[in-house]
Amino acid sequence: MSDGQGPNGGVGNGSGKPSMREALIAAAFELFLERGFEQTTIDDIVQLAGVGRRSFFRYFPSKEDVVFPDHERCLADMTELLEQRAGDGEPVTQVCDAARLVMRMYAADPAFSVKRYELTKSVPALRAHELSVVWRYEHTLADYLRRRFAGWSDGTLRADVIAASVVAAHNNALRSWLRAGGKREDVTSRMNHALEFVQQSWGVTTDGTSDAPAQEPEEVVVLIAKRRTPMWRVVREIESTLDESERN
Amino acid sequence: MSDGQGPNGGVGNGSGKPSMREALIAAAFELFLERGFEQTTIDDIVQLAGVGRRSFFRYFPSKEDVVFPDHERCLADMTELLEQRAGDGEPVTQVCDAARLVMRMYAADPAFSVKRYELTKSVPALRAHELSVVWRYEHTLADYLRRRFAGWSDGTLRADVIAASVVAAHNNALRSWLRAGGKREDVTSRMNHALEFVQQSWGVTTDGTSDAPAQEPEEVVVLIAKRRTPMWRVVREIESTLDESERN
């Protein structure tokens, strides 16, 4: 998102002139919104952009991909971020940070993102394409968590469930932001709120120096209690759950 | 799954003779496994099944659908189950029960399910189709939970995250069961274990007489603590979280 190939056809490559890739995106969107996605051919797009048909396929494998031009780069950024953080910090925080890359991609050009959201909702082929992209993000996050939770009891289950939770929370916040018109100042607080909701449920408390839980797969105690539960019952519940010998 | 149109082409309609639908499924699978999915045409399938081309489309909208012949019925069963339980019981338990319908569909014919799993893994078009089916299940569960959590703070967020968690846990258990060869006696315990994992995190404790939380959106307190946390810190944490006036 920083090399000038932003989704917005009108800005980005520093020369003030849209790149060929940007021109193709702008032309495609103009036609998709005017005629509909299915009614627009790749020939229509290259004609309006004033480039050859082969140029289109140099940038985009299919007509669907021109609608989501930055997901490939975002997936690569996500993979890179998670590789850098392979063994550090609280795992759920790391995947939430990785999910924020997607949010930032959308927030980089809110007007484009809102238009695309409207278009995608109404075109089954685009929704199918979006599902496959979302699946790849979720798979990338789950893969990372599976490595972090290797050796835990229910490690892969935990990884898959947390990855799905993070993606669902991210998409809930992203869509509600897009439906509300995509105001730039809104997006971060909405996203933080949604991701914190997941972190509160699934975040792992580590001792700050190490996150290797292999020796202690059940390091964390989760207690769920009704607000009105009397304190003596809460304490009894904790005591029966905690291993007495491990308490200070 | 009880009207004789089971996925297994060899059994089911009570007459001992496969129905036309079953014959089409059996023929399709024979060809898909022999030649590959992409290399098999609908004409090949109807020819082997000994029926006309129009019969195929009477049962299946597309070649992909013949690989997942029972999802439409399962989705309808899920919707019906959730309608019956519109206002009753713990919401997360209800969606877990609904998810078990999918598990039972797979478990009704393990050999077919294992074959299909192998086939789907290797064919991108089938994986895309499966993603769209999974999305519809998730959407059905989320819709139900959104109604149940209407009036809660973060109701739609909670609904979306729990639905995604349930689907991820279900699919984790289902796939590990299929990878292990699909032994019939295995599936229920694997599934219960995975769904209980989600219920422990997201299940809602109600007072047993009502599940209407609208007046009390933050009815539940979730505490996550390290095993070694001293008890005084646990208690202080709970006290600062609970509203003092609401405790007995």
UniProtKB/TrEMBL annotation, chains A, B:
<feature type="DNA-binding region" description="H-T-H motif">
    <location>
        <begin position="41"/>
        <end position="60"/>
    </location>
</feature>
<protein>
    <submittedName>
        <fullName>TetR family transcriptional regulator</fullName>
    </submittedName>
</protein>
<dbReference type="InterPro" id="IPR001647">
    <property type="entry name" value="HTH_TetR"/>
</dbReference>
<dbReference type="InterPro" id="IPR050109">
    <property type="entry name" value="HTH-type_TetR-like_transc_reg"/>
</dbReference>
<dbReference type="InterPro" id="IPR023772">
    <property type="entry name" value="DNA-bd_HTH_TetR-type_CS"/>
</dbReference>
<dbReference type="Pfam" id="PF00440">
    <property type="entry name" value="TetR_N"/>
</dbReference>
<dbReference type="InterPro" id="IPR041347">
    <property type="entry name" value="MftR_C"/>
</dbReference>
<dbReference type="Pfam" id="PF17754">
    <property type="entry name" value="TetR_C_14"/>
</dbReference>
<feature type="domain" description="HTH tetR-type">
    <location>
        <begin position="18"/>
        <end position="78"/>
    </location>
</feature>
<dbReference type="InterPro" id="IPR009057">
    <property type="entry name" value="Homeodomain-like_sf"/>
</dbReference>
<keyword id="KW-0238">DNA-binding</keyword>
